[in-house]
Amino acid sequence: MLKVLNIVGARPNFMKVAPIYAKMKRRPEEFAPLIVHTGQHYDAAMSDAFFDDLGMPKPDVYLGVGSGSHAVQTAKIMTEFEPVILREKPDWVLVVGDVNSTIACALVCSKLGVKVAHVEAGLRSGDRSMPEEINRILTDAISDLLLTTSQDADENLRREGIPPEKIRFVGNVMIDSLLDHMKVAEHSTVREEMGVEGKDYAVLTLHRPSNVDDRETFSGIVDALVTIAERLPIVFPVHPRTRAKIEEFGFGERIAAADIRLVEPLGYLDFMRLYSGARLVLTDSGGLQEETTALGIPCLTLRENTERPITIELGTNILVGTDRNKIEQIALDVLSNPTSDQNATIPPLWDGKAAGRICDELLK
Ligand code: UD1
Q1: How far is the CA of 68 from the centre of ligand 1 (A)?
Q2: Is 37 near ligand 1, meaning CB less than 6 Å away?
Q3: For position 5, what pLDDT does the model report?
Q4: In the structure, how many helices (H) and strands (E) does the chain have?
Q5: How far apart are CA 80 and CA 57, in angstroms?
Q6: H helical segments located in 229-323
């Protein structure tokens, strides 16, 4: 029987751990799973809502670290997590994604000789100015088992000298969650609440420091959004960081004057219901590039690079950067060409069965 500590910290972690934890719970002879929540995200809308929607029990351990600079947040997670490892003595610690909680917990384990499995290993944007890229490279370098979502990730890991026997292509566990919850999300009334049911609309999310912390970049993006909103309404669930920046930069009036509907961050099911009916998604999120690819929805990624190239090669994603004219032009092109995503396919092993394969690999 393997005792596994499953780490969650920030919003994009919850829907990756949920299906793995559920699968382990269904195999009690083989697994004794626990959930450790670092508390990196703590707002009800950024955390609790996801536990409810995903049917996850309350975390077994809550570290309550909260916000801070990268150094403060990472260090706090490490000091709070170390005693948990010493007390629980797990066989494996499972970390997902690329947030500060991922590297902090992996680093604690590697120093204590506890085995770490990294889910979503090997993704690389090639852009080391992104905090997530540093977290990815370092977590992969010290993990014992590297579980990948696509074969380009295997390639990246081999190139960095990771022994091939540590690398396992298991597919995309985020799509397990998506497929598991599609049906129940149909009960959400979010489209009616936003006034977009039965209409063409776009969905926007934006929270990367490189997009929202720089006034000029953010202002250019707002200009492009105002133009796109002349064609169709844009529903914009706003991350707390972004909300603060809109206020600081005084962009509120420009946004309010256009048909851009600012709403609080949505829960997992409401958000799925919202983007799954969208004509177009605009985002700088990583996960949403994958979810739109899985559903065949056109996605414009407002970044200069992506660690998820498969969503461009096979899927519906287009990298548009942050140049105002480019965003406008490509968005309007996609909107006037309803068949633009017809040749898109779903990447291999994004089949809703990744959690089972992850469990099997841990046992091996
Ligand atoms: C983190 C991840 C990012 C991920 C994102 C999803 C890192 C380095 N970044 O970024 O990869 O895409 O989560 O949302 O781990 N805040 C709140 N309430 C919360 C959480 C945050 O108000 O529950 C505010 C605080 O002002 C905080 C700021 O958001 O300082 C940033 O939070 P933080 O966890 O540092 O990073 P994110 O931008 O959320």
Answers
A1: 9
A2: no
A3: 98
A4: 17, 13
A5: 21
A6: 240-249, 252-257, 268-276, 287-295, 310-313
Quick check: 152 and 309 in contact, CB under 8 A? yes
Q: What are phi and psi of 298, to 5 degrees?
A: -60, 130
**What average pLDDT is seen over the chain?**
97
Global confidence as pTM: 0.97
Q: 211 CB under 6 A from ligand 1?
A: no
> For residues 50 and 272, what is the distance between their CA atoms, to the nearest angstrom?
12
**In order of start, what are the domains of the chain with their CATH numbers?**
2-171+349-363 (3.40.50.2000), 189-336 (3.40.50.2000)
Asked if pLDDT for residue 341 goes beyond 90, the answer is no
207 is catalytic: yes
Helix (H, G, I), strand (E, B) or coil at 128: coil
> For 159-211, what is each residue's pLDDT tens digit?
999 999 999 999 999 999 999 999 999 999 999 999 999 999 999 999 999 99
- Residue 340 pLDDT > 80: no
